[in-house]
Amino acid sequence: QVQVVESGGGSVQAGGSLRLSCSVSRMSFDGYAMGWFRQAPGKEREGVSCVNWAGVRTYYPNSFAGRFTISRDGAKNTLYLEMNSLKPEDTAMYYCAVRYGDCSRSETDFDYWGQGTQVAVSS
User: Phi, psi (5° rounding) for residue 108?
Assistant: First the structure.
């Protein structure tokens, strides 16, 4: 059974930075895409970014690309999300997810999920 565990969330002031990590066990990156989603209070879960097995990165929407950077370390089976210039509206539970196939913006396309890590940004 694939296990997905996020870490790195916390409380920061606006303009600050956080680096989220997602450790995935019992699988390799071959043929898999890994993504970050987030869910703010009272809102639906939304896609943030994804990287596929070839290392191609996608940001949803494109505006995240200026502040967020997704990366992975194949040797450690770990996915990262570097978040800079954080805003109060970035406050949310951030989830890591894995699917066999290419990146997708739809959460229903992902097979394995972590429990999430909370990010709180104060003004």
Answer: -70, -15
